[in-house]
Structure formats: structure tokens, C-alpha cells
Amino acid sequence: MAWFKNALLALGLFVALGCSTYAGKIRNVRYLFESAQYESASEELQKLVELKDNDQLLYLLELGMVAHAAGKYAQAIESFKEAEKIAVLNDYTSISQEVGSVLLNDSTKVYKGEDFEKILINVYLAIDYTLLGKWEEALVECRRVNQKLDVMISQGKMPYQYNSFAKYLAASLFESQQEYNDAFVDYRAVKKWMNEFVYLPAPLMRVADKLKAEEELQSYLREFPKYKNYRLGKGEGEVILILEQGRGPYKVSNPSFDLLPMFVKNGSTYERGFLKDLSSGASTEAETLFDVESTAIRELEEKMALITTKKVGGLVAKRAMAYGIGQATKSKDAEFFSLLLLLATDHADLRSWVTLPAKLRMARLTLPAGRRDLVLDMVSSGQQRQVKKWEKILVKPGKITFLNSRVFE
User: Fold this and answer.
1) Is residue 283 classed as helix, strand or coil in its secondary structure?
2) pLDDT digits (tens, 9 = 90+) for 288-315
3) CB 242 within 8 A of CB 402
4) What DSSP designation does 92 have?
5) By C-alpha distance, which of 148, 184, 142 is closest to 165?
6) Element (H, E) at 76
7) Alpha carbon distances (Å) from 114 to 91, 122, 130, 219
8) Within a 10 A sphere around the Cβ of 48, how many other Cβ atoms?
9) At what angle do helices 180-193 and 164-176 cross, to 10 degrees?
10) CA–CA distances in Å: residue 56 to residues 52, 60, 251, 287, 296
11) Nearest of 160, 163, 209, 208 to residue 188 by alpha carbon
12) 145, 122 contact by CB (below 8 A)
């Protein structure tokens, strides 16, 4: 009877520990973040960071995103850089942790990060450096994205969408600094991957013109006949808006096999977004350059066969261990309760970077130089409303001004 009571006590303990999931720990942080209570969200995350547990990487990613959304770009960079260091340290296989994850659950392992999350660390570093006007540092991060993608390719992994966002951002940064050769290389790379992107033809042709690449320029003019006015006037500059739209996907247990994770779309209620100049009435639509939601879902689906095999193997191992305990104790009760305990500890690994947007979009607008009042209008079910306003933004002749906005709905 004593053994029976102890088993029930242990079972209760394991169930209680199982309820302490990452989603549970971060739930209030998500609420604070999405209601723009950034200081409170940051304070809660700092406490979690101090735990230095298996989810340390995620805490830092969430902390970086909170600082980024609050416009504290230097703080965001600090968190993302620390997260990148931990991602590199975590990116190895610990035999003891692997054994523990088979007999218990994957939460016993340090979180390594999904491939797309590792890419997005450098994407956000590039964005934050850009918004601080630190062009060289931003370009370094864009190059690191390319390096990571090269490694993934060499390992037989698919670099989903090739991350045209980072490539286009790098091209724009090079163009803004009048480094036209490098800009041309990156714009041409985007053309290979996203030839249909509406904000590609004009800068591609403009840079080709600057470099006197006449043959290629004529080829582009034939391919994109609508973009004959690709040159900027003497008194014109550009504004690029980086729009982070919606809430990223989150993991839940798969209803067909609850030990497996699956991403669920969180999305956005807005179908379209427009950057508009209040003085001239000029307006342009934000277009998707990185679909975080689709990338996350596709990447997890690609790994599902491996995850399933491990989970099935784990169930076999648990039964074998429980059988061994039963044989050693010559007790069917011991075997039964051991199996019950082992099964109670298992669950799908539902950890992920939950403060990400569903999509990264860009809008690019040519405007007369000077101070401009700009707004972001979002459209849902045919209804358009203003969600952000920037006053007296300085547009410089021949230069690019970068703006950023996060929209949750």
C-alpha cells in the first residue's frame, strides 16, 4: 500500500510538472505584448531569462521581439545577439538529453530553435540595425542570413523561400549607400527567387542604369514594360516600410496523435495594407516578402516523419522499461504504475517563438524630398482604417528612409 501511495504521489508530481509548459509560462507575456504593454512584458521575460533553463533561447527571442516592437532597437539587438550565441551552443546533440527525451519528453532537452527561427534572428538584427541607421552592421547580418542558408543547403535542408526578405533588404541598403555593384548582385538574386515582386523592377533597372549595364537594362525594360519611369527625379527620395503583420503560428498537439506537434495558423484579420503620403495622396500596397506562417508549417511537416519515428520508439522504450521494473520487482502493479508514470510524462514539444508575426511585408514609395506626414492604412472586409501615423518624416533626395510597424490584427 505504501508503494501504491508513493506511485500516486509521483504520478501527481509528473502531471503537475507536465502542465508547466512553455505556452503556460509565456501566456501572460503574450497578452502584455499584444496589448502593447511592452515594459511589463519585458519585466516578466527578464525573470524567465534568469532561470537559465532549457527554454533560455526562446526567452531571449521573445525579449528581443518585445524590445523591437517598443522601438528599443539597441536593446533588441542585445537580446537577439545573446540568443544567437545560445543557438550556436545548443546546436549539438547531447546523448544524455536524447535518452531523457525518449524516456520522458522533448522538453527535457534544451530548445535548439527551428531552422526558420535561426534565420529570423539575423533578419531581425538586420532590421534593427537598419532602423538605427547602422548600415554596415545591418549588411553584416544580411550576409549571415546567406551563410546560414548555404549551410542548410549543404546539409540537404530546404531554405524555404530563400529568404528574399533579407536579400531585398540588403540590396536596398547597398543602393541607399550608393554601393551599386553589390545592390545589383542582390536585386538580381531576388529576381531569380521572386521575379513577380512588384518592388523589384524599378530599383533593379535603376541600379543597372547607374552601372551602365545597358544590355541587361534593355532586357528588363522588355520584361517589365510598365516600369519605364524607373529613375528618381532630382528632388525625389524613397520610403521603405517594413510591415510585420499578424500573429505568428503556434504549436498544438496533433489531434490524430497527441504526442506530435503541429502549427496552427494565427494569421491576421487584415487582407491588405497601404503606405500613404497625406500631402500628395500617393499610396502603395505592402507586399509579402517572407511568409513566416507558411514557412513554419512547411518546415515542421518536413520533419514530421522523423519526429513520429522517435515518438513511436519512445513508447516502445517506455513499455520495455516498465516491463523490466515489473520483472525486477516481481510485481505486475509495479510494471503497471511504472508504465503509467512514464506515459504521463510524455507530451508533444509545443515550444516555439510565439511573438513572431505571420508575415513580413514591404512597401516602397517614391516621394518629393522634404518632411512628409505618412500613414499606414489597413483593410479588412472592405473597410479601411488608419493604424499608424508618422509625422514630419524626412525624405532626402536620392536616399531611402526606412520605417517599421507591427500590426497584430
Assistant:
1) strand
2) 999 999 999 998 998 888 887 776 665 6
3) yes
4) S
5) 142
6) helix 73-90
7) 11, 14, 25, 40
8) 20
9) 160
10) 5, 6, 18, 33, 20
11) 208
12) yes
pLDDT of residue 17: 46
Query: What H or E segment, with its residue span, contains residue 69?
Result: helix 56-69
Q: Which residues contact 103 (CB under 8 A, 6 or more apart)?
A: 314, 317, 318, 321, 342
In angstroms, the first-to-last Cα distance of the chain is: 56
Measured distance CA(274)–CA(380) in Å, rounded: 12
Where is pLDDT greater, at 21 or 136? Answer: 136
Rounded distance, CA 317 to CA 313, Å? 6
Q: How far apart are CA 24 and CA 338, in angstroms?
A: 27
Q: Exposure string (b/e) for 258-284, b if CB count within 10 Å is 16 or more?
A: ebbbbbeebebebeebbbbbeeeebeb
* Residue 23: band (very low, low, confident or very high) from pLDDT cuts 50, 70, 90: confident
User: Does the structure show a pLDDT above 90 at 101?
Assistant: no
DSSP per residue, 344-389: HT--------TT--SEEEEEEEEEESEEEEEEEEEEETTEEEEEEE
